[in-house]
Amino acid sequence: AQKITQTQPGMFVQEKEAVTLDCTYDTSDQSYGLFWYKQPSSGEMIFLIYQGSYDEQNATEGRYSLNFQKARKSANLVISASQLGDSAMYFCAMRDPTGNQFYFGTGTSLTVIP
Amino acid sequence: GAVVSQHPSRVICKSGTSVKIECRSLDFQATTMFWYRQFPKQSLMLMATSNEGSKATYEQGVEKDKFLINHASLTLSTLTVTSAHPEDSSFYICSASLALGYNEQFFGPGTRLTVL
Q1: Could you give the residue ranges of the DSSP H alpha helices within B12-110?
Q2: Which has the closest alpha carbon to A44: B50, B88, B45, B111?
Q3: Which residues of A touch B43 (CB under 8 A)?
Q4: Which 3 state secondary structure label does DSSP give B48?
Q5: Which pLDDT score, from 0 to 100, does residue B31 have?
Q6: d(CA B67, CA A100)
Q7: Which of A23, A87, B41, B89 lies 20 to 30 Å from A80, alpha-carbon distance?
Q8: Are the beta carbons of A99 and B46 separated by less than 8 Å?
Q9: How high is the pLDDT of residue B1?
Q10: How far is A56 from chain B (nearest CA, A)?
Q11: Which ranges constitute the DSSP H helices of B1-116?
């Protein structure tokens, strides 16, 4: 069974600082995709970044980067230069090889402090 | 990115009534759509996978007779909560992929259902 673990229920970061949100996963599949989504209080799920299991380089999207350590089965999200608007829930997710299912972690609530 | 809409965004209904939630892909055709349920401060739980022109595939523990899913076209999937009860109150989110196995799922804005 697939499993995503986010061990940080809540995180605080000072504005303009960097923050790392942890995510570990468990799968026996060789091919999979890892995602991070942001969910503000409005409820909408906003796609942030994607990492394929065969990608050798860490994914980056603007201020977001994914620290992918395949052997450790971790896919941590790094947000650089935090902004007040980054305060939200963040979910790590994994897509199985068929593409049929996404498995979500329990989320991390990030609060950016001015 | 592709846009997915949901209607209504909020609905309040009486216990025992049925509620229909629509999920539309606005600028692309979605062979497959997904329905999730999210309780307050919890993660998204996949309820079912909706395939155009065929029966939905439900996750274990999800009552298919209670949560009716119809995917009549490549741009529309509906979730009907039949004989709703207060415990069905939740945030329901749909998502769609451009194609099966495509990297990204595009999420709708969600529907907050409150059953009195």
Answers
A1: none
A2: B111
A3: 91, 104-107
A4: strand
A5: 81
A6: 19
A7: B41
A8: no
A9: 64
A10: 16
A11: none
